[in-house]
Fold:
Amino acid sequence: MYKKLFIPGPTHVRDEILQAQAAPMLGHRAKEYSDLQKEVIPKLQQLLYTQQRVYLYASSSSGVMEGSVRQASTKRVLNTVCGAFSKRWHQMTVANGTPCDKLEVEMGQAITPELVDEALADDDYDVITVVLNETSTGLTNPVKEIAALIHDKYPNVLILVDAVSGMAGIKIEFDAWGLDVCLAGVQKCFALPPGLTVCAVSDRARERALQVENRGYYFAYDVMDKKYEAGQTPATPAISLIQALNKQMDDILAASLEARWARHKEMAAYIQDWARTHFALYSDERYLSPTVTNIHNTRGISVADLNKALGERGAMISNGYGDLKEKCFRIAHMGDLTMDDMKWLTAQIEDILGL
Ligand SMILES: *Cc1c(COP(=O)(O)O)cnc(C)c1O
Structure:
């Protein structure tokens, strides 16, 4: 049975978006495709408040995380870790043989500018990785403030941001904040089917990559740049997904970006209040995420049973991630979900649990 997804990716996809994928296929070296890519990139630049290049990769986000950290450093990387997804970036850095250290805080805690300052002072780093929105704990790191600190005191450090569960749900001002890489797969806040990743890259990150000898090939910016001006990608792009993305970006911009940020905040505030009333919040209250809430299972309910009962009513939420399984559960309020969806969902949960 079809279930409406309240999980932090993949998220619910509207029928119009599913249908946009069914448009006739285009040749990826034909003018029709170049026109499509040249049409969608400026819309993404608008979404990210940037004039810098935005690449489209046929890959899940993880591929671009690995590809971007691999071509970023000629010295040493500082990986900040505050949960499962930020930890993955550290594992990728290690796996690529790039010298690195991790700055780790407990799950539910944020990476602060003060912690970053202390850690960067320790060694000759030239890259930092940060997750904007840690999906495993429902927490948003103060990336703008971290970036300001880095520009002030460590101007040689590139700022790589995993915005997978934030981009298109949280306002990210790529140029004003001075980010260098900001990436997200489209199956989360963009509310598209999975398989495509959007990645903004600064000119200085592109210049740095040229100095990295083993920067890889598939994700390498200089390889992408060979086709960028022509509105193409070196390998075959995920054409159907890009057609759907173009439609989704039209809808997002027509409804206004500010309305989108506001809707996410409103849904988050509603779910947070509900969680405080019936359970508790897990993460530091100062950094709660606008796109996903991690609820502390203070009643000791069976999350698996709850999800089974929700399934019979046509909905799905997420269990806690990793060690937080059954200790927490997560409700995503991202993508194209609405306040009506949130109210419907909490009413179902209250009914099932007899709250
Ligand atoms: C989902 C997620 C990822 C992994 O994305 P894939 O597209 O599955 O590779 C990475 N980081 C964050 C913060 C995520 O939420």
Notes: The chain has two domains: 4-11+256-353, 16-253. Residues 164 and 184 are 4 Å apart (CA to CA). The chain is about 40% helix and 15% strand. The mean pLDDT is 98.
